[in-house]
Predict the structure.
Amino acid sequence: MTRIASGDMAQAAMLRRQTADLKAALGTQLSEVTTGRPADLARHLGGDLSALAGLDATLARLRAYGSATAEAALVAATAQAALGAIGDGAASLAPQLLGAATGGTATGVDVLAADARQRFDAAVAALNTRVGDRALFAGRATDGPALVPAGTILAALEGAVAGAAGPAAIEAAARAWFDDPAGFAATAYRGGDPLAPLPVAEGETVAIDVTAADPALRDTLRGLAMAALLDRGALAGQPAARADLMRRAGETLAAGSAPRGELAARLGLAEARIEGARTRNAAETTALGIARTDLSTVDPYEAATRLEDTRQRLEAIYTLTARLSRLSLTEYLR
């Protein structure tokens, strides 16, 4: 009787252990079928996680490039819009200045001078455009404005042309001040050297290196400033001289049209390269994401087969346990 009882106890313990093991396996396999992911990834990959680690590293790098290209695209687009505003203002004002100088009245010159002053202010404001906490046209000195206030620039220019007699002398003095490193660059420009090229993809960089000190923008500011000086009283009481200076300002703006266009084209090329890099990065991210999913997911058919096999084995144990629980001593001794 003791032997029989001991055997029953051992058999019951074995059945309980098998039942617990099968229940745990059933839960794991049910989770795998439901989520499509293996419970033990290392075991699923045969202990070799190097391929998965390589994919994760590349995807992390691509995410970093994604952030860089998004920021670069925003910077380039905003800078292009600012250049467009400056170029449109200068292009529309130039013929008006030339027309007023040749056939306009003194009142017309005064009105255009006031307009030029406003456009100069707007151009300086455009070159001080910021995206977040970053100045777009200040080069590496992104934490501050690219230019001092427009009024400060005009006051400094007035001092530089103060001794000039006549429109030709004022134009020469203005050109010298804008070109002199001790003039515009030291007094008006508060930025730094152009930014280094930005990495946008593996082995690829894009330069967004336009600053407010670029010759094309500097010459545009010079043309606007020359006309704006008339609004500040330059050559007062000399209608012919004022008209002549306005003509020279118009010619300066007209001559700057091509350089401004080249600057915009250079920035547009950078925008195209950024967009191309962003598209390629996105495609690579998608492809690698699919590859990672293939590595880290279970085969649905195999997972379902294993689940069904475990279920059947668990049911068999339940059936066996039920039959054993119905045995009596008399039936056992037979």
In short: The first strand starts at residue 130 and ends at 131. Residues 50-103 form the longest helix (54 residues). The radius of gyration is 39 Å.
